[in-house]
Structure formats: C-alpha cells, structure tokens
Amino acid sequence: MASRTTSPCLIFLLALLLPLAAVAVPRRHRFPSLQLAPVNASEPPTTFFEVDRPIQPPRGSVGPCSALLLSDSFGYTYGRPPATAFDRIFGVWLSGAELLRSCTAEPRPDGILWSVSRDVTRYAALLSEPGEVAVYLGNIVDSTYTGVYHANLTLHLYFHSTTPSPPPLPHADLILPISRSLPLNDGQWFAIQNSADVQSRKLAIPSNTYRAVLEVFVSFHSSDEFWYTNPPNEYIEANNLSSVPGNGAFREVIVKVDDNVVGAVWPFTVIYTGGVNPLLWRPITGIGSFNLPTYDIDITPFLGKLMDGKEHNFGFAVTNALDMWYIDANLHLWLDHKSKKTVGSLISYDATSSANVDSQFSGLDGRFVTSASRHVSATGWVESSHGKVMTTFYQRFSYKNSNVYSKNGSEQVVNQTIDAKSGVSTTNGAVLLSEEVHQVFPLYLFSGTSDEVGDEYSLVSAIKLSINEKRGSGAEQGFSYSSLRNAQSARGSMRVKGNLVTSGSGENHQVYKYVGTDGCYSRDVSSKNYTIVFDHSDDSCLKGSQVKGSRFPSS
Ligand SMILES: *[C@@H]1O[C@H](CO)[C@@H](O)[C@H](O)[C@H]1NC(C)=O
Ligand SMILES: *[C@@H]1O[C@H](CO)[C@@H](O)[C@H](O)[C@H]1NC(C)=O
Ligand SMILES: *[C@@H]1O[C@H](CO)[C@@H](O)[C@H](O)[C@H]1NC(C)=O
Ligand SMILES: *[C@@H]1O[C@H](CO)[C@@H](O)[C@H](O)[C@H]1NC(C)=O
Ligand SMILES: *[C@@H]1O[C@H](CO)[C@@H](O)[C@H](O)[C@H]1NC(C)=O
Ligand SMILES: *[C@@H]1O[C@H](CO)[C@@H](O)[C@H](O)[C@H]1NC(C)=O
C-alpha cells in the first residue's frame, strides 16, 4: 500500500472538489490526481496511451516530410479560480478551425509521456495556406501543482508521385471555422453554461458552394462532466443535496443554422483521466479521452437558403446543460470551380424530438428512467456544373438511461445506451453517393460507498463503456465498409479519509476490433494499477477476427 504526502494547499484544492459535508451522498465522480505509487527518481516516465488503430499513410505514397509546427511549455494558463483545475482539456486550432480536442494524462512524480496522432487529410485546404496555429491547455502551476507540460506539435506530410487509382473522394476546398476569434486568454471553443445559452457565429458562404458538412467538436466539464449520472432536480431538492449536479441525465447538443435545427450530437460519454477512479486509466486511458470523437452533420440540403451572399447564423445549444460545455465546429465547403454561382432549394425538412423521465424515489433511494428520441431529415437540391443534384441527410437517435440509487443513496448504478444512425445520399437520377453510419454507445457505471467509519469510507467503482460503429459508403469510386467494436471494462476501489484518497487500486481491460475494406486491426490489452498485464495486437484480417471476449483476466 502506498501513502501520499501533501501540503495544506493541496488539501484546500481537494476541499473544493470533494466537499467535506456530513458524508454527502450520492458522491461526485471526479477525483484529483492520485499519487499512489512511491516516488523513484530513477524510473523512466510512464507512457500513457489510448488504444486506437495506427494511422496508415496512403498506399504508394512517399514520405513523411515532417515539420515541427510548435514546441512549447504550458505552465499557468487558467484565467479563472482553480475550481476546474483538473479538467486539463486542450485544443489545437489552425486558422481558427479545430484540429484536435484532447485531455492530458495525470502527472506522476517521475514524469509522464504520451502522444496523440490524428489524420488531418480532410483539412488539406487549410494546410495549403499560411495560417495561425493556436494551442490552449488549461493548466495551473503553484506550490503544489508544479507540473509543466512540454509539448511538440508535428505535421507529417505524405505525397503521391502519381495520381492514385481509384482517385480518393475530394476533400473540402474551403474550411470555415465556427469558433471564437483570437486573441483570447482562453480556448477558441464556445463555452455553454446552461440550457438557455446559445452560442453562435455569423458567416457568409461562397456563392459557388455545392456541398457543405459541419464537423462538430464537443466536450463536457465541471457540473456536466458526468451528465449521464445526474439525478433530476426534484431528487436533489427533496434531499437537500447542494453539492450534487442535477438537470437529469439527458443531454443533446443542438446545431442550428438560422432558425432551423440542422442536426444534433448525442455525444459519446468520454471519461477523462481523473474520472471515477484515476487508477482505472493508467496507463490505458479512457476511450476517446486523448482524441475526442467529432460528429459530422451534412447541411447541403440547406444550401439553397444560405447562398444569398448574406451572413447566416450558426449556433449551438445543449438541452438541460449545466456549466460547462466546450463546443465549436469546422464548416467544410466544396466549391464549384467552373461556375461563379450555384443555385439550390430546400425541398423537405423535418425535425422532431421527444424525451420522457420516469421518476420514483423515497429519501435517497430512487429509480429514474429517462428515454429520448430525435429525428432530423432534410432534402434539397443544388445545381452546379456537376448538374442538378438532390441530397438527403438524416439522423435518428434513441437514448435510454436508467439511474438507480440504493442502500440509502450509497450505491448508484447507471445503465445507458445511445443509438445514433445517420446517412446521406445524393442523386441526379442515378445514385452518386450513399453513406450510412450506425453508432451505439453503451455505458454501465457502478459506484458504491461502504465501510464508513468516522470520516473514512471506501469507494468501489466498475465501468463498462464502448463504441460500436458500422460505416458503409458507396460512390463512383467504389464501396467501403468498416465495423468497429471498442470496449473497456474497468473496476477499482479507493479508500478515502476526509477528502484525501489514502490507497487504491484499479484495473482495465480493453478489446478493440476493427474490420474494414481498408484493413483490419485488433488489440486486446489489460492493465492493473500502472502495469500492463498483457497486450496482444494484430493487423491481419484473418486472425484479427478471433479476439477473445471482454472478460477480466483472472487475478
Ligand atoms: C494496486 O496498488 C495498491 C497500492 O497502491 C495495492 O494495494 C493493490 O494491491 C494493487 N492492486 C493490484 C491489483 O495490483
Ligand atoms: C528504483 O527504480 C530502479 C530502476 O527500476 C530500481 O533498480 C530501484 O531498485 C528502485 N528503487 C526503489 C527504492 O524502489
Ligand atoms: C520536442 O522537439 C525537440 C526538438 O526535436 C526535442 O529536443 C524535444 O525533446 C521534444 N520534446 C518533446 C516533449 O517531445
Ligand atoms: C431540507 O432542508 C429543509 C430546510 O432547511 C428542512 O426543512 C428539511 O427537513 C430538509 N430535508 C431533508 C430531507 O433533510
Ligand atoms: C440515510 O442517509 C442520511 C444522510 O446521510 C442519514 O441522515 C440517514 O440517517 C440515513 N438513513 C438510514 C436508514 O441509514
Ligand atoms: C443495461 O440495459 C440494457 C438494455 O436496456 C440491458 O440489456 C443490460 O442488461 C443492462 N445492463 C446492466 C448491467 O444492467
């Protein structure tokens, strides 16, 4: 068992995060950086990683030609009091367009090391012009938190000596940021603080646009970091739980262009490196935490309304939001090089949603079942030198969350599933392009407090979270298909005294399996505390299909 040394300043910071009140139940799910392993200066830094398939340079390409875009150290960057000190979220922007949203690993005395890679091919239009790189990392350095992050940002370019066959689908000709302008003492994302908050930016679209896709970046923090565990307000009020965030467990990011809801994001439940029990995420970090997923919304059917040369309002809101959500987007535009003006019209549009909460509780025990659904679909045509092309985009979401408190509120079980389908098809009589995406995000979270003696208690946690995704597309260039199953199953326990964690353990098992027309990759990896127990990976398409089930290895 390990112990920790601390300073009065640390205790003060922890007090902000873990209120000392008469063992307030239910508890929050965020714990600050734990230092549970003994310090040994001769040990090498720990390397953290997020399991993902390696990025493959295109077949037949040469390179890389690499350029160091930025090399910097991040010390004190927070403009606000340190209440959100542990949400070390960061973003990378190029000319205002976000390229990466990520979360830092939690430091250890002997140092930590990690790297994140992202395929930036779709941003080719931005990379071909001079631009301004911005990185914002919220960090605090004081007498306790002495960690400084040294970061390098490197661009690797690969080139084709001849035109590949078949030619790849072209990327956008222009990318317009829907974010806040520099200079700021903050990230370029919009910060959404409550359910009435709508953040927006006005933009004019070039009059020869024939296709438009919004790529949305989303992350949730502070009171909404664990939004899917939040109980309804009536439960909080009835039990006088002033420190528990509420507004229920359903959240939806709504994307509007002028007055129309053009699409929604029902985000994957990313758990950052300090969430639930920090030892679960060392060194295998939570799915999506180093490379947060982004969400595409095709707004081509609305182009007819947007190409009048005037500015239009692109806005974001979050249903039931509590402080705080960071949201921005990149608008990818395809331009008709053979004409100055395209024309278009919206033919049909439909956006409906429903949400329902079934609430039963008595004292601190209760059961809340929340269901919600959303459908958006739009069809419109655009006439350009490519002809008169009809585009249909749709999204269909369903959501179910069950949140059960038992044993006088000392145990909480959340079981949630988000099911998101979307698709786009374009025709000019014959089908030109057809894409379908089906994502399912299951989540299970158990949190139990026990062995309460005075101001000491034990906290046991178990989590299962996964991304299951199927993509298919068909175009003149050919067909592609992929299937991803990426599941983590983690559990751990901690002993907490007052508001200090005195000991703990955690283990995680992740099974990643990708099968696609562009290749295969599988990995089966497990960790206990800071140590990798086993790690098998395979990129052959035959053997890769034999990954074992997601059980814990016997200990
Ligand atoms: C993890 O480390 C803690 C002490 O830091 C120890 O008590 C526990 O047994 C370890 N757990 C495992 C699974 O090795
Ligand atoms: C520190 O780490 C080194 C290298 O791993 C090891 O040889 C040494 O025994 C460790 N010292 C302590 C006090 O654990
Ligand atoms: C950043 O790049 C410089 C120059 O290549 C190198 O000396 C330094 O170690 C790198 N730092 C990190 C954190 O990788
Ligand atoms: C909540 O606080 C109010 C006023 O302070 C008090 O009347 C009520 O009994 C409290 N309820 C519970 C469940 O503690
Ligand atoms: C339930 O918890 C509350 C608050 O911690 C406490 O006041 C109450 O006595 C507990 N009830 C039971 C039956 O243990
Ligand atoms: C979670 O809910 C799903 C569907 O509602 C159900 O199939 C599954 O068994 C539940 N899991 C747990 C652990 O309760």
Automatic annotation (TrEMBL):
This is Peptide N-acetyl-beta-D-glucosaminyl asparaginase amidase A N-terminal domain-containing protein. The lineage of its organism: Eukaryota, Viridiplantae, Streptophyta, Embryophyta, Tracheophyta. InterPro entries: PNGase_A, PNGaseA_N. Keywords: Signal. Pfam families: PNGase_A_C, PNGaseA. It comes from the Eukaryota. Residues 85-351 form the Peptide N-acetyl-beta-D-glucosaminyl asparaginase amidase A N-terminal domain. Residues 1-24 form the signal peptide. It comes from Aegilops tauschii subsp. strangulata (Goatgrass).
